[in-house]
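Exam prep: given the inputs below (a chain plus adenosine monophosphate), describe the expected output before reading on.
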Amino acid sequence: MLHIYNTLAKRVEEIQPATPGLIEMYTCGPTVYRDAHIGNMRTYIMADWIRRSLIHSGLKVIHIKNITDVGHMRQELAEAGGDKMIMAALAEGKTIQEIADVYAGRFFRDEARLNIMEATVFPWASHHIAEMLDINTKLIANGHAYEKGGNLYFDVPSFESYGKLSNNIGGDLLEGVRSEADPMKRDPRDFTLWKAAEPGRDVKWDSPWGPGFPGWHIECSAMASKYLGESFDIHTGGVDNVFPHHEDEIAQSEAAFGKQHVNYWVHAQHLLADGAKMAKSAGNVFLIEELIERGFSPLSFRYLCMTVRYRHRMNFTFTSLKAAEKALTGLRHRIWLWSQEPETSGHETETEEYRQRFWNMVESDLDLPSALAMTWEMVRSEIPNRAKVALLLEFDQMFGLDLDKAPAENAVTANVTETLTIRGGHREQSDYATADSIRWQLTSDGYVVHDTWSGPHARPKTPLELRQDKWASVSSSREVESHLDKPADLDFTFILNAYGYPSDVKRCIDGMLQHTGNHSVEAIVIDNGSTDGTGELLEEMQSQLPELKVVHADHVIGDAASKNIGLMQSRGRNIVVMDGSAEITGNILDSISETLSDPTIGIFGPWGLSTPDMQHFHEEVDDGDADAMQAYCMAFRREEVNKVGLMRECFRFYRNLDIDYCFQFKDKGFRVVADSSLPLVRHEHRQWTELDDNQRDELSRKNFGRFLKRWGNRPDLLIAADAVGFDNQKFHH
Ligand code: AMP
Ligand code: ZN
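Solution:
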């Protein structure tokens, strides 16, 4: 039987069903005004593993997963920033219900792609308002709730064991996080059960306290009790649900029904992406759909989730996803090959030992990393291959990886089989050159050839393998070699972070390469995970322009990481970092090389900024010393990169990265100098203009915070510092 960490008991416990043979389980489901991202999906995969393990123990599992389609809609709109789509849909006359249906449909599709077993019931919150009102009425009747101004609040001090799940009793600490302090509450920890509708709100229902909508937590109390009763076995969610969502759910349900609400609470730790919390503003929110767009199989993500215990943070990277996909393809391929072998006997004891070890690991707090490691040990062991297949297929009842799905072997044509036989003939005659060239031909025709015990086999390449054939790509700047320790052998390197918009990218590159005068020049363009045809355009241009060098990133790696790839790969004495919205219209290189021959000048470009106080940067420096240079065009000597360092990769969005990098130069005593007479023009900056106001604010604020944290206490670096009495001279050569 499964043993699992119970957040309520704060220890690992054996699951004991309240009703013999039956487990009742509730999982906090998706909010359907946005897409569920891979972090959300990790949490649902954990619940699926719990369920599969219990089924293996012979239990029947009733699994409820709610669909959140009411409540904090307004807050979502304000916070999420990505809700241009919702606004557009509303503007198009779509109803809230239609929008929710679209997102719910995509959620169901992603769950199916990940082999997450369908819940027994997916109840929708908006269909359970009556049940929520019932619980609220009970809570008023038994003195656990009070009404004020059409709002209904849960009276936290009236519920003695409040805090038993999260240990959070000084709720005021976290109270302000989700909602502004509410003067109508008697106690700051009190939370909303029902909220009066504000004027103009159209998603609202009648209630004994007037028109309004339910608080955030009550939906789960209502739906759980409706489908599972007043008390049930297991409740799951992500760690962020522990407080306040689940703490409040316990309070509501136990105060209303007078019974222990849930016996086992299980929480999945969060998924980080590229080392950072997933956030729209960091550009590292990934969807299953996007993994597919980039050639991955969704089940590779499921495999990846097995490599880290559910209770630990997991750092998602495309590098690790690639490894997971390779491992998964390898397992499937072995099963396919081994299934064709004759059955042999022997090693029965070891086989049985593997089986038992496997299920013990699974049942010991879902230790899938160990179970997976053991699986590979078994795969490489001496037991008969057919026994391995049987074990793998049994383990797959837990893994849910479709291991019996051959990597499309059967799609190999008779032609390919014949070619393989011919190749085999050449090998037998030790004509390896011909054999290799046939193999090479098959590879370029889209097949992978494996030489195995029973002779050569070919399988069609997976979508990821085909994509990787199209062009090599990197998953982070760490995968790129740095040439910065080698001497420059060109006059100039242009660097362009291409974040999409192919026509802008083309205009910018043409400008770079058409006005080079007598200088030797290269242009390094980083295709920053585009899916809008920019990658294809760059491949095409690269085949025609010898000065152009393209590096593809397999996902959006962010602005600083992308530019760092350019810096590390550069070979020009001077570097010019450009933005796709800027266009060079004449010779700027003479002027740059002349200006940068002054060793006191670190950064030079047309569009300078100045600030009196670090808080506000103004576009007013046309000529002479500036505090920073805008990234539309900034030039510096390559050799100084070793001195000032690379750009800080926490800047995934461009904003303020340029200022930050300029301060790295200033910190080393260099000046930043502007000359707006350089022949350049600026076009619409679509990376900015295509964001909505929410997104702009959030993205800018976060990056500005990063800048201030590092440089806020260095007003001595400002050009205005002279005026306010800082001794600037010591920083100059
Ligand atoms: P939501 O749609 O925000 O209600 O989240 C759905 C589920 O995903 C909840 O159980 C959350 O706790 C969980 N969750 C949210 N963010 C993450 C993340 N980054 N990693 C893992 N789970 C998450
Ligand atoms: Zn919930």
